[in-house]
């Protein structure tokens, strides 16, 4: 891929807005927005810290059952890279108050007809 296709400022601004919209929805447990930002497809995958979710229905069920307390977190080392005008990867680390563990999150985003959607996500924790 040519370097001029990476991180076009307009595309980077769009996906950054979507990423931070997701983050705000996550810490406020806004499940409607979280759902809206995932691709509504059986091929969507989310590997969590303790669960493997295949398809939007499993992701929705997980969100509905997840406790809504203690979701605040601090992000660090966030890197968002766009590839052309319709694909991006967002990577970040996070910490939660009272925990020594470092969380890691990666999301693959694709621009669909109705906007940017997460097609694959991975969350993990390390000591």
Automatic annotation (TrEMBL):
Transmembrane segments: none annotated. This is Oxalurate catabolism protein HpxZ. InterPro entries: AtzH-like, NTF2-like_dom_sf. NCBIfam families: HpxZ. It comes from the Bacteria.
